[in-house]
Design brief:
The protein is α/β, with parallel strands linked by helices and 454 residues long. The protein has three domains: 202 residues, FAD/NAD(P)-binding domain; 111 residues, FAD/NAD(P)-binding domain (3-Layer(bba) Sandwich); 105 residues, FAD/NAD-linked reductase, C-terminal dimerisation domain (Enolase-like, domain 1, 2-Layer Sandwich). It has eleven helices and 21 strands. Helix 1 packs parallel to helix 7, helix 3 crosses helix 4 and helix 3 packs across helix 5. It is globular, with a radius of gyration of 24 Å.
Length: 454
């Protein structure tokens, strides 16, 4: 081990890389980590954390309206200041980044604020010109927004830039149909912007349960979000007014003040020197790894969004922990990617774990338990918003194969429901659990009659 400068060198200071570096250092390993931008990665700097803060901000517009139904009077129409929100968000991100840096220092990790590339199977080169040898190299560089090659694309923003807009756009065109597109549609809409969401397919949230997709998109439309399906921009032109004229692929045109592409992220492997070092990449550019996160070069591993697995922050952290167990603790651990609960912070919110009805039916006969209802918090406010609760149950095994929730607090609920589903709970286990009343979550344990087959 003394033949190398470091026992481990991590490229990338996001959640997975930082956790792996810290935990490896605690085993006594000599650890180096290089990050070219800011510590915290996509999640902390330009993803989960700032996005959730903006979701909270945008939800207050409905809260002011709903309060009147509960006896509150708001003397004058509330106003929103974009710059105040962005400044508060930036201050919180800076605070969190400081914690990341402090935690690395506390465990003795040598941090380098510079871009790093792989020079060989055991060598890392920094943009400063320094070169370090390492017994093991961990790639944790995350993902990068995908932007299509169309005329005028330089006028659009991605999920990297959308968090730092100097002013709130009055009209927003969001392109995409996944997590980020749908979440930001709710954010801008809640803050008062006019939102159009364009998606090249026929329904947003591809890959999720169909009932969940249709219910969520219908509720989003009720809030004033306009959907344009089967269309995406073909050309963007900046007008003298500062606005943008967008020609859609279906021949239609629209004018907007912001074009935001939320069309997914790709593994951030470009220019890292991986292929030159012998590391195999997937057709999509991800680092090809085995069950233990090891690449085709034995000394090089990869975790997080840079691999072609689940692009979720908690998953990256677990992969980083499993890597340390495997390489530095002598206990081979394969990260578990099965039955991972997740939330989509749309408005209304989504929480889901396990199989969709469509995927479950392809495997075995199932029973479906589904309920839609108006939550108590909307009764006095008069808001026309409905929740969805759905359980997908194996007809013979009785196991709850999938749990899907749309509505207020869905993310919090699915974390706990995920424990039960992960443990293999049956529908009868849910039925035996006493309801907590009055809550929306009690619906999960009170649904008794399966939906009739059609």
């Amino acid at each position: 081990m003394a033949d190398y400068d470091f026992d481990l060198f991590v490229i990338g200071g996001g959640s997975g890389g930082v956790r792996a570096a810290r935990m490896a250092a605690l085993t006594g390993a000599r650890v180096g980590l290089a990050e070219e931008f800011r510590y915290g990665g996509t999640c902390v700097i330009r993803g989960c954390v700032p996005k959730k803060l903006m979701v909270y901000a945008s939800a207050f517009s409905e809260a002011f309206e709903d309060a009147e139904g509960f006896g509150w009077s708001v003397p004058q129409k509330p106003t929103f200041d974009w710059t105040s929100l962005i400044a508060a968000k930036d201050a919180e991100i800076t605070r969190l980044e400081g914690i990341y840096r402090a935690n690395l220092d506390r465990t003795g990790v040598h941090s380098f604020s510079a871009r790093a590339t792989v020079a060989s199977a055991h060598e890392v080169r920094l943009a400063t010109g320094e070169t370090f040898s390492a017994r093991t190299i961990l790639i944790a560089t995350g993902g990068w927004p995908f932007m299509p090659d169309i005329p005028g694309i330089e006028h659009a923003v991605s999920s990297n830039e959308v968090f730092n807009l100097p002013a709130q756009p009055r009209r927003v065109l969001i392109v995409g149909g996944g997590y980020v597109a749908c979440e930001f549609a709710g954010i801008f809409n809640g803050l008062g912007s006019e939102v159009t969401l364009a998606y090249r397919r026929d329904l947003v949230l591809r890959g999720f349960d169909m009932d969940l997709r249709t219910h969520t998109s219908a509720e989003m439309a009720k809030k004033g979000i306009a959907f344009r399906y089967g269309a995406e921009p073909a050309r963007i032109e900046r007008l003298e007014s500062g606005a943008f004229a967008v020609e859609m692929g279906d021949g239609r045109h629209l004018e907007t003040d912001l074009v935001f592409f939320a069309t997914g992220r790709v593994p951030n492997t470009k220019g890292l020197g991986l292929e030159e070092a012998g590391v195999a990449l997937t057709p999509g550019g991800a680092v090809q790894v085995d069950a233990y996160s090891q690449s085709t070069v034995p000394s090089i591993y990869a975790v997080g969004d840079v691999t072609d697995r689940l692009a979720l922050t908690p998953v990256a952290i677990r992969e980083g922990m499993a890597f340390v167990d495997t390489v530095f603790r002598g206990t081979p651990v394969s990260p578990d990617h099965d039955l991972v609960p997740t939330a989509v912070f749309t408005q209304p919110e989504i929480g889901t774990v396990g199989l969709s009805e469509e995927d479950a039916r392809a495997l075995e006969p199932v029973e479906i338990y589904r309920s839609t209802f108006r939550a108590m918090m909307h009764t006095l406010s008069g808001r026309d918003e409905r929740m969805l609760m759905k359980l997908v149950v194996g007809k013979e095994s009785r196991r709850v194969l999938g749990c899907h929730i749309v509505g207020h607090g869905a993310g919090e609920m699915i974390q706990l429901a995920g424990v039960a589903v992960k443990m293999g709970a049956t529908k009868e286990d849910f039925d035996r659990t006493c309801a907590v009343h009055p809550t929306a979550a009690e619906e999960l344990v009170t649904m008794r009659e399966p939906v009739a087959e059609t």
